[in-house]
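Researcher: Sequence recovery benchmark, item below. Answer with residues only.
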């Protein structure tokens, strides 16, 4: 299977490629994306000298037979190394390298045309590889385009209700004593306002709680499909609910696919759901999930600003725009700690979409939220979501809602 980017790729010059071949490169980023890039480099006869990872547990270990070092170690090894950034979090990693005085860093989109992903060594399926590579290529292009405002995604929180009650839900559902649905009119108007300010949104993601519990999901999908400045629609579900009869018809669209988190016996209807989706030619990706990061804690960490910036910078959801009850937040955690009234940030950390006062300002407000934050007040009470955060068993259930710690 040959991958070609559907977006423009910025080619490197012949001389630069020859330099990469002669000296080898350092790849910032491990994991599945790092593996993909190592494979793409091998196909171009470019050797990887080191991998760089911000996860201190990995320093000194090997990844794909290559030593893993810290970002600071680049300076010791060779400050003039050619560093290729193999991560969707490239904006923060570039800032980190710049702060260290490292100048020779590059995006990796130049490797992502005519890329044979048949024999790659990752845990991702070929479909998942394609999805991630497309998103990366889109995001690199969107960041280069300074004229317009293009965002990776928006998470629409349809409901606070869920068919499971996970103790460590990263969306903090376990803390809702009386979960409610999003008001449909508020959601549709807010979404209209969002899309009138944004030039393009690559993914619209329906989340909850459990989005299939939201009775008006068909009306939300209709609204999203009526827009021409959105890409895919993704339904995140926990495999407990199977839409039947007419309900399934709303999902029959090539732009829509399901991401099913399979939590074993808790996800009691995964097989049935997969069967119904297959019979109706609806795309889906199922992932068996056994562990999560410990990222649902709500505590006062009292970190320094520098540490909060690192926590934010390395967080895997630090640009996950989230719409909840007519407001736009930068990540789901920040949306829910505000909605649960755990914090009221001193400097506003959301954008009013429903009650917006001035449409002209909306674009710049969203731009500032999306590109302008170095950390959030919410980060100071959040355990973070990076690779240094401990693993915990996924989807352990609680019978009742949990009390929030006083902050
Ligand atoms: S299934 Fe669990 S993790 Fe997912 S939204 Fe529901 S409570 Fe949260
Ligand atoms: S509050 Fe900060 S660290 Fe926590 S999930 Fe959001 S961006 Fe990440």
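Model:
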């Amino acid at each position: 299977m040959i991958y070609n980017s559907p977006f423009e790729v910025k080619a490197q010059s012949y001389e630069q490629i020859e330099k990469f071949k002669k000296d080898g490169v350092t790849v910032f980023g491990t994991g599945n994306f790092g593996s993909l890039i190592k494979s793409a480099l091998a196909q171009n006869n470019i050797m990887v000298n080191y991998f760089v990872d911000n996860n201190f547990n990995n320093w000194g270990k090997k990844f794909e037979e290559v030593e893993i070092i810290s970002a600071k170690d680049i300076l010791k090894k060779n400050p003039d190394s050619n560093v290729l950034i193999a991560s969707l979090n490239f904006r923060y990693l570039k800032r980190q390298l710049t702060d260290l005085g490292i100048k020779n860093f590059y995006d990796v989109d130049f490797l992502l045309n005519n890329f044979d992903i048949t024999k790659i060594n990752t845990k991702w399926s070929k479909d998942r590889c394609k999805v991630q590579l497309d998103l990366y290529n889109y995001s690199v292009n969107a960041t280069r385009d300074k004229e317009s405002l293009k965002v990776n995604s928006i998470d629409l929180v349809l409901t606070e209700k869920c068919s499971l009650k996970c103790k460590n839900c990263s969306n903090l559902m376990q803390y809702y004593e009386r979960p409610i649905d999003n008001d449909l009119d508020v959601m549709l108007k807010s979404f209209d306002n969002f899309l009138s300010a944004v030039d393009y949104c690559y993914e619209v993601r329906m989340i909850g709680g459990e989005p299939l519990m939201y009775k008006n999901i068909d009306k939300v999908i209709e609204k999203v499909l009526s827009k021409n400045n959105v890409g895919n629609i993704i339904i995140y579900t926990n495999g407990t609910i199977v839409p039947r009869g007419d309900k399934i018809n709303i999902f029959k669209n090539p732009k829509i696919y399901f991401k099913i988190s399979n939590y074993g016996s808790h996800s009691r209807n995964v097989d049935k759901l997969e069967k119904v989706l297959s019979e109706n030619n609806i795309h889906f990706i199922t992932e068996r999930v056994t562990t999560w990061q410990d990222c649902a804690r709500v505590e006062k960490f009292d970190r320094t600003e520098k540490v909060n910036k690192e926590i934010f910078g390395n967080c895997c959801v630090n640009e996950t725009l989230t719409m909840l009850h007519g407001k736009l937040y930068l990540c789901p955690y920040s949306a829910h700690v505000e909605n649960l009234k755990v914090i009221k940030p001193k400097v506003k950390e959301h954008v009013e979409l429903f009650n917006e006062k001035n449409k002209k300002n909306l674009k710049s407000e969203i731009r500032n939220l999306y590109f302008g934050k170095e950390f959030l007040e919410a980060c100071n009470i959040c355990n973070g979501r990076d690779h240094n955060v401990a693993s915990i068993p996924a989807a352990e259930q609680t019978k009742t809602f949990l009390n929030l710690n006083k902050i």
